[in-house]
């Protein structure tokens, strides 16, 4: 089924009903539309353009300028691998490469089953846990490539259990086995 035919307008109509006629509403509309659909498909952008009476080119300009907006489908789990200085010197790049190979996607890509999107980030602000990655808001630190793969496998097998940990730092690297934790 094409993107255009599968578009369900109810959520977007509800969002737009709060913003019609309001100057400066484009960014909050795009944020809420992306929350509703997971990304900004073409028909959503076309409908926003029509209802806000803006050229579609302007909407695409805003959506492509800000990194928070995505024009392609994203995975259920967003995996961000840190490549800041501390993470880089401690093997962050190897972790990103191993995850990309294991998931079968390039960095920036989404798995065919839309379970994972893999991203590199400049810094997670978790230098003491280097190398680190974040999956859906949970930070995993002191990683090895194998430990990072184990984290991903946990999300594949037990998505509900892993999701309940949201936001807590998980020190799973070699030092955590000696009783230290973040």
């Amino acid at each position: 089924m094409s993107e255009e035919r599968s578009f369900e307008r109810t959520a977007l109509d509800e969002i737009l009903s709060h913003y019609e006629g309001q100057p400066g509403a484009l960014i909050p509309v795009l944020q809420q539309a992306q929350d509703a659909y997971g990304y900004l498909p073409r028909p959503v952008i076309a409908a926003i353009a029509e209802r806000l009476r803006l050229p579609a080119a302007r909407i695409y300009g805003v959506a492509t300028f800000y990194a928070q907006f995505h024009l392609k489908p994203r995975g259920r789990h967003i995996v961000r691998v840190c490549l800041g200085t501390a993470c880089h010197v401690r093997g962050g790049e190897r972790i990103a490469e191993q995850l990309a190979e294991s998931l079968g996607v390039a960095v920036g890509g989404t798995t065919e089953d839309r379970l994972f999107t893999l991203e590199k980030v400049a810094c997670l602000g978790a230098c003491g846990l280097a190398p680190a990655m974040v999956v859906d808001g949970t930070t995993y630190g002191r990683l090895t490539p194998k430990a990072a793969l184990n984290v991903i496998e946990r999300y594949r097998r037990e998505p509900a259990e892993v999701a309940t940990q949201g936001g807590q730092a998980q020190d799973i690297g070699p030092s955590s086995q000696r009783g230290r934790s973040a």
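The chain has two domains: 10-65, 77-178. The chain has a mean pLDDT of 87.
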